Amino acid sequence: MSREQRARIDALLRQPAPAGPRSVAELRAGFDKLMAGMVVPAGIRTHTVTLGDRPAVLVEPPGTARAGTILYFHGGGFVYGSPDTAMSLTGNLVSRTGFRAFSLDYRLAPEHPFPAAIDDALSAYRALLDSGEQPSAIAFAGDSAGGGLTVTTCLAARDAGLPMPAAIVAFSPGLDMTRTGASMDSKAESDPLFTREGLEYTGAMYRAAHDPRQPLLSPAVHADLTGFPPLLLQVGTNEMLLDDSTRLATRATAAGADVILDITADVPHVFQAFAGVLDEADEALDRAALFLGQRIRSRDIGD
To answer: How far apart are the first and last CA of the chain?
Structure first.
């Protein structure tokens, strides 16, 4: 591990923010600026497509892609973010695995609150299946709020009678809108990015009038995870949302799912986005790529 690298990133994320609640436009502009500084792998190819009812960015590796698809959900608290802000993550998964990825531009709150994002994600998954893609050849991946969507979309797909994807990869997923994890308090000083007030501010935009104590808002504490595909949950110890992952891992294991809980010391929320400048980020993405390569299985038409 590199103490110097981690210290620089911690200092970057602790830069003072304007006092008081920021408008939605300010939140979106600030996040765009932060994520524009992330390293995107050279050689990947991108173009905009339609998947289900929404735009998406198709991300392809250099050369010929392997058979298989990653359906990626970006982070941003369900309020900000886009396929562009997540391109360092999506691009790294594509370049390291050789699979193509669709990064979904799902609708955002407060204009489109819960369950709009889940509806869009489920529509995208259904579109892949309807195109002839086998569920065994599709994996869900996402970060932060998008990491939460990997889980809630599986819940929605199961309830709709659709087959489960081959696997889930979730980077620092947000999985508990009740905010009852012990790490919400125990990691408050260590977390350079979040505060309870900030999480409640954006969370309220997404929840709207809905009770957070339901599976699609707080799967870490309220979901039945029976029948879930294998999960890789990657999270850092300097995260208020740490216990979102640890509690989901416990519930998924109890429900019979294969789970890898991958915790990295002294790194912040979605540290994988710092690939190219943080050794732990590159190592974590290598582990995620290995997991996806082992789980995604494709077959030729006619097999």
So the answer is: 45
